[in-house]
Design a protein that fits this description.
Elements lengths: L13 H15 L5 H17 L3 H17 L3 H15 L5 H19 L2 H17 L3 H17 L3 H18 L2 H13 L4 H17 L3 H17 L3 H18 L2 H19 L8 H21 L2 H17 L3 H17 L6 H17 L3 H81 L3 H32 L7 E4 H11 L1 H6 L3 E6 L5 E4 L1 H18 L5 E10 L5 E10 L33 H11 L3 E7 L3 E12 L37 E5 L3 H11 L4 E5 L2 H11 L3 E5 L7 H9 L9 E5 L4 H9 L4 E4 L4 H21 L12 H15 L8 H8 L3 H12 L3 H19 L4 H7 L5 H12 L3 H4 L2
Parallel strand pairs: 2-4, 8-9, 8-10, 10-11, 11-12
Antiparallel strand pairs: 1-3, 3-7, 4-5, 5-7, 6-7
Helix pairs in contact: 1-2, 2-3, 3-4, 3-5, 4-5, 5-6, 5-7, 6-7, 7-8, 7-9, 8-9, 9-10, 9-11, 10-11, 11-12, 11-13, 12-13, 13-14, 13-15, 14-15, 15-16, 15-17, 16-17, 17-18, 18-19, 19-23, 19-24, 20-22, 22-23, 25-26, 28-31, 33-34
Length: 924
């Protein structure tokens, strides 16, 4: 390919030019003349060195390996890849590591037939792609693994890999790569008609995207398969198309493939008529043979050298020169005997058959017999190997079917589990009804705010539980095929509007903009109101869970005409600007009980039922649902449902949808994080993401403690360090950081290590409790908990803090083991003692020395000693004064100055308050 055919502008700017060279080589190197590719690569290396781009230097070695591969130089190819691998350790780019391992695998497979090594390298590459969510690379690797399995005659596993690759290409919208998988699937099909069908599909895609290299391979293989079906004219037609394409591709190996194929087919067509050989066609075949032979010699590929000499020998034989033909065929045989690389079995068999035939015509029957024996030995060897591979393939298929049987068994168990849930949910409805009914009566009659608040919490959470029960019942009905649609005529847009309206209160509370775009006007249609309501409530509830404050949720209604005038296709688009869904999780979000985030730090509660129910309801209405999402930007659900338009005005569905949990009336909980704290007040920090649970625990303690509130673990840690509470109550499962992480971080921070922490969780397993105590939690309570027990635990831990204050009321004892509290107090003592004779040294100077805020230092010292910062500094001065009175002859006035008091009288007054006797009494 000439340089002017590369339609790309190389910028004169260095960095930009470097990037463009990389893009050019990455996309086009397979279709370039090796010399042209090398010239571009030399430019890339020069610029990469000039700008010290380590990543581009690694890519230059990868591209060099590509060039060596096309030149059929496997050792040089591997050398480049080894250099790339060594250099890649300095580059944090998973795509580079994927490419290196993949190309190493391909080289081992193509040139050395070391398929085990190839598979091992592909697995390394695949692991990196999966760990980094690189679906496109993952698809390419599955293609390569599939080809390797085909070479091992494990066609069942190969096809599974190709299907996975196609699925991944569809996911990322790379249609042109699907052609590659179809091509690979066709390579080893024994059913030649099926192989041709797949290759023609691949050819259509490759022609669409202008991929001449792939299109050449498609036509070449179509021709090979037609030849095996003895359809020589059709085979020649596609071989001719391959020849036309290969001239523009200019890849030596591909040229040899094309020349041999068309030469062999032309030779066959020339000799089809047993009574008369077509000399013109033989001359044409000779032309391709003459092109093949020198190229094979230059590249030194044994397989093509054998093809070249065999073809020349057969053509010479049909031209009437038997001896010359035999000479060429024996040259081919010499190459076979000395070759240590792959040579096609079919070529070898054909060569032996012709040598036998030509020796017989020359009446050298001894040699003819020897080659006849070799022919049958090779044929038997190939047949036996094929048989072994067939047995191995059957074994592989059997093992896979066993796995599929296990999957079926697990699916049956899943069905049993679902039936169990359906049965138990029926039993739950009665007690829930008896909870919700009286609770709502209390709500209507109660006048005290505390009773109203507690009853509201009960009502909301009982209603939530009832919704979950109803969802499980709906799923059970759908699975059993017992759920039917109950369609009535109504104005669909007004009905949807009423559902959106029900969420306006929640939108206002969470500061989220909620919009309805209605493009269907007041269409009267026949639809199942209950199903539409459940779909929208589930999707809207999810949208509110994942959308942050100041975000936006939009529901858009459109309708398109269909072939039937009385049926319209309703489209509901529900879009949010929330957190989005990771690409690798999208295929599973409609699976029942699937949770995209199963960690303790997920930012929402859920069961994994809602979206499964939504999908099944949509399908019950003969509709479809799709989802698009960009992680970190937002999600869009697209629902298409056929609706029947009313022929005449019908009764509109009346009434609003029933109130759903968490939608109409969530409590507005005041933010108390900035509450001014009285110096002597006990402060409790509550870290809990469930607002109802938050408010309930707050109500238990608000009369005795100042309550600080946080709704995720990271914020809770920050607040604990900033405000130094007396005690922390934390949930375990929370966003950002879970309770274990909160506990671990605070207990290892000198500033907060003394604060008692109680963990609350729904997890009751022994290993969960052990983990809590491992993280130095002071107490661990399981939900549901008794509020009196929680209050007593809090009192007990506060009491233990008071004992600590007595212990550290003056200073950390020197013999005290090195725990965070004693280390902190010793550090404080050292700073104060260093400034002891400085009367101006006070709390402000101490905070600067310790790099703490004044409030942090006050809360920490108060918690440990029961004293204010000023009182603690004074106590250190007085303690030192007592020591000087006992051990020196200094006067009381001198000692007062020595320990930082400006007046001896003030020293005497404070000394008497501290120790209960005056300084003068010490020396009596």
């Amino acid at each position: 390919m000439h340089s002017e055919k590369i339609n790309v502008h190389l910028s004169s700017q260095g960095e930009e030019r470097l990037s463009e060279l990389h893009r050019l080589l990455y996309k086009k190197i397979g279709g370039m003349d090796p010399e042209l590719a090398q010239s571009y690569l030399d430019q890339l290396k020069q610029l990469a060195n000039q700008y010290n781009r380590q990543d581009m230097l690694v890519w230059s070695e990868i591209f060099q390996s590509d060039i060596e591969q096309y030149k059929a130089q496997p050792e040089a190819c591997m050398d480049s890849l080894k250099r790339a691998l060594a250099m890649s350790e300095r580059v944090d780019d998973p795509a580079i590591h994927i490419e290196i391992y993949k190309l190493m695998g391909y080289t081992h497979s193509l040139f050395y037939s070391d398929y085990d090594k190839a598979l091992s390298l592909y697995e390394q590459s695949l692991q990196i792609a999966q760990n980094n969510n690189l679906s496109l690379h993952e698809g390419r690797i599955y293609d390569s693994i599939g080809v390797t399995y085909q070479a091992l005659s494990k066609h069942y596993l190969a096809n599974q890999c190709f299907q996975k690759a196609i699925k991944l290409y569809k996911k990322v919208g790379e249609e042109h790569l699907i052609a590659n998988s179809l091509h690979n699937m066709a390579l080893w099909y024994n059913d030649h008609e099926k192989a041709i069908e797949l290759l023609k599909k691949a050819a259509v895609i490759n022609a669409k995207y202008g991929d001449a290299q792939r299109l050449f391979l498609n036509h070449h293989l179509i021709g090979v398969n037609y030849k095996k079906l003895s359809k020589i004219d059709e085979a020649l037609e596609h071989a001719q198309k391959a020849i036309e394409l290969v001239e523009s591709i200019n890849i030596p190996v591909y040229k040899m493939l094309a020349w041999y194929a068309i030469g062999e087919l032309t030779k066959i067509k020339a000799t089809t008529n047993k009574t008369k050989t077509n000399k013109n066609l033989l001359a044409e075949a000779q032309k391709y043979s003459d092109q093949l032979s020198p190229q094979a010699e230059v590249l030194g590929i044994a397989d093509f050298k054998v093809r070249a000499f065999s073809l020349k020998g057969k053509i010479a034989y049909y031209q009437g020169n038997v001896e010359q033909g035999l000479t060429h065929l024996l040259q081919a045989d010499d190459i076979v005997k000395s070759a240590d690389s792959y040579i096609d079995d079919g070529i070898r068999l054909d060569m032996l058959r012709y040598i036998h035939k030509l020796y017989a015509e020359l009446e050298n029957y001894k040699s003819a017999y020897e080659y006849h024996i070799r022919f049958h030995e090779l044929k038997h060897e190939i047949t036996s190997a094929s048989g072994r591979k067939d047995v191995q393939e059957l074994q592989t298929q059997y093992e896979t079917e066993q796995k599929e049987a296990e999957v079926a068994r697990l699916q049956e168990m899943e069905a049993l589990k679902t039936r169990f849930f359906s049965q138990i949910t029926h039993e739950l409805r009665t007690p829930l009804t008896l909870i919700i009914g009286p609770t709502r009566q209390i709500l209507e009659q109660a006048t005290e705010p505390a009773i109203q608040m507690n009853a509201g919490i009960i009502d909301r959470n009982a209603d939530r539980l009832l919704q979950l029960v109803n969802q499980l019942l709906d799923i059970g009905k759908l699975e059993a095929g017992k759920m039917s649609l109950n369609k009535n005529y109504g104005i669909l847009s007004l009905f949807v509007e009423s559902i959106i309206y029900a969420f306006q209160g929640l939108a206002k509370q969470q500061q989220i903009q909620l919009d309805l775009i209605n493009e269907i006007d007041e269409i009267t249609a026949k639809f199942d109101a209950s199903a539409i309501e459940k779909i929208l409530f589930n999707l809207l509830s999810n949208a509110f869970k994942f959308t942050d404050r100041q975000g936006r949720i939009v529901c858009c209604l459109t309708a398109q005409n269909t072939d039937d005038e009385m049926i319209k296709n309703l489209t509901i688009n529900l879009m949010d600007t929330g957190k989005g869904i990771k690409a690798e999780e999208l295929p599973y979000i409609f699976d029942r009980f699937y949770q995209a985030d199963g960690s303790y730090t997920r930012e929402y509660e859920g069961t994994g039922i809602g979206l499964s129910l939504v999908k099944e309801l949509v399908e019950l209405m003969e509709g479809s649902i799709d989802v698009k999402s960009i992680f970190g930007e937002g999600t869009e659900f697209i629902i298409n449902i056929p609706i029947e338009i009313a022929q005449q005005e019908s009764q509109v569905i009346k009434g609003q949808p029933q109130r759903k949990q968490g939608v109409v009336s969530q409590p507005l909980i005041p933010d108390r994080s900035n509450t001014l704290i009285d110096a002597d007040a006990l402060v409790l920090l509550l870290i809990e993401d469930n607002k109802d649970m938050h408010e309930y625990i707050r109500s238990v303690f608000e009369n005795d403690y100042v309550i600080l509130q946080s709704y995720n673990g990271d914020e809770g840690i920050h607040m604990a360090k900033e405000r130094i509470p007396d005690l922390i109550i934390s949930d375990v499962m929370m966003p950002e950081k879970d309770g274990y992480q909160v506990c671990d971080e605070l207990k290892h921070d000198m500033l907060t290590s003394h604060i008692p922490i109680i963990l609350l969780t729904a997890k009751t397993a022994l290993n969960s409790r052990i983990e809590a105590y491992r993280k130095k939690a002071d107490a661990y309570l399981s939900k549901p908990f008794n509020p009196e027990e929680l209050k007593e635990r809090v009192k007990g831990l506060i009491s233990i803090r008071h004992e600590l204050q007595k212990k550290y009321s003056i200073a950390a004892p020197k013999e005290e083991p090195a725990n965070p509290e004693s280390v902190f107090l010793r550090r404080v003592n050292e700073v104060i003692i260093a400034e002891l004779n400085n009367p101006n040294f006070g709390p402000m100077q101490l905070t600067e020395s310790l790099f703490l805020s004044r409030s942090q230092l006050f809360r920490k010292i108060k918690a440990l000693t029961g004293r204010s910062t000023s009182a603690f500094i004074r106590s250190i001065r007085l303690l030192k004064g007592l020591e000087l009175l006992k051990n020196t002859e200094l006067s009381i006035t001198q000692i007062a100055y020595e320990v930082g008091f400006s007046h001896a009288s003030y020293f005497t007054t404070r000394f008497l308050e501290e120790f209960g006797y005056s300084p003068s009494e010490v020396r009596i």
